[in-house]
Write a structure and sequence with these properties.
Helix content: 25-40%
Largest sheet: 8 strands, mixed
CATH topology: Rossmann fold
Oligomer: single chain
Strand content: 25-35%
Strand order of the largest sheet: 2-1-3-4-14-13-12-9
CATH class: Alpha Beta
Number of helices: 7
Structural class: alpha/beta
Number of domains: 1
Number of strands: 14
Length: 209
């Protein structure tokens, strides 16, 4: 029986390419905004493309936030991708101050106010380890090596407690958190569905965790 993975549809995710990538690795994919399904699912992905305030407004109005919290409390696995990773944090300064899901303590801020640094950060970057996590390194990072690179496109970055950031990437001498983790909650600042073979391996590892 295929492992079922839920993609949360709140109107701001790059859903089609993510769905195709998951189906390619043999997952049964359900795209939904049904809170009952979300709260009961063992593997959930929160995608995201766009602005933090609008995303949280939609998530709060729909009750999806509570469904996510309910699922996480049951021990189910949650993966946030790009904006979806940022939404996991406490709050954001994007355009205006907005509260996030607060599943991982931290803040979202612009990558840099230095006009000499090009924003958004777009392109391929490899990951550098900052902290060791048995759950991540043994399972989610299985068969990934130091030479693998991943596709980033973002203007804002996550500031968390140091032990919550597992991997970072360098951009214009700025250490950008690329992978964050707290218990059964994970976040990728990059897009695994757009990151070729290495990205597919990560999604397969998430499916199998």
């Amino acid at each position: 029986m295929k492992k079922e993975i839920i993609i949360i549809d709140y109107g701001m995710g790059n859903i089609l390419s993510l769905k195709r990538a998951l189906e390619y690795i043999g997952a049964s994919v359900v795209v939904t905004k049904d809170n009952d399904i979300i709260s009961k699912s063992s593997h959930i992905i929160l995608p995201g493309v766009g602005a933090f305030p609008k995303a949280m407004e939609t998530i709060n109005k729909s009750g999806i936030g509570e469904a996510i919290r309910s699922s996480v409390k049951k021990g189910n696995f949650l993966l946030g991708i790009c904006l979806g990773m940022q939404l996991l944090l406490t709050d954001s300064e994007e355009f205006l101050f907005s509260k996030g899901l607060d599943l991982i303590s931290g803040n979202v801020k612009i990558i840099s106010k230095n006009k000499n640094i090009k924003i958004p950060h777009v392109g391929w970057s490899n990951l550098k380890k900052l902290n060791y996590s048995i759950k991540f390194d043994k399972y989610l990072f299985k068969n990934i090596n130091k030479k693998d690179s991943f596709y980033f496109t973002h203007s804002f970055m996550c500031f968390t407690k140091k032990n919550k950031c597992l991997y970072y990437t360098n951009y214009s001498n700025i250490k950008i958190p690329a992978v964050i983790n707290s218990e059964n909650i994970f976040g990728f600042q990059f897009h695994p569905e757009k990151s070729g073979k290495a990205g597919l391996i990560l999604l397969e590892n998430f499916k199998n965790i």
